Hints:
By secondary structure, the chain is mostly beta strands. The protein is 0% helix and 45% strand. Strands 2, 4, 5, 6, 9, 10 and 11 form a seven-stranded mixed β-sheet that branches. A four-stranded antiparallel β-sheet has the order 1-3-8-7, with no helix packed on it.
Amino acid sequence: QLQLVESGGGLVQPGGSLRLSCAASGFTFGFTLNHYRIGWFRQAPGKEREGVSCVSKSGSNPDYADSVKGRFTISRDDAKNTVYLQMNNLQPEDTAIYYCAATRRYYYCSGYDPYEYDLWGQGTQVTVSS
């Protein structure tokens, strides 16, 4: 059964950087990571889960929420079954638990409806504080 495991979170000062990883394993029936669209979401205490970034099955048309555009970069390495989220110039408002999610049902990125995703990781904490 497919599993997603996030890593790379931690405590960083404002202006710092982190790179999150979303490692996929347990593929079945000949599926590989490039059969999945991957999204990154985050949830801060007391707030709803929000979409951060998305990458299509082919890696084309990466998408970003306005709040992270120009600071975050999503990429995928299908050979390593891993999707990355490079986060630069982190700010305190980026503090949250970050989740990656996968879906086979949709190809391109369009919005951040969490119900479009069928599988979620357990999350990794990102704290931005001085």
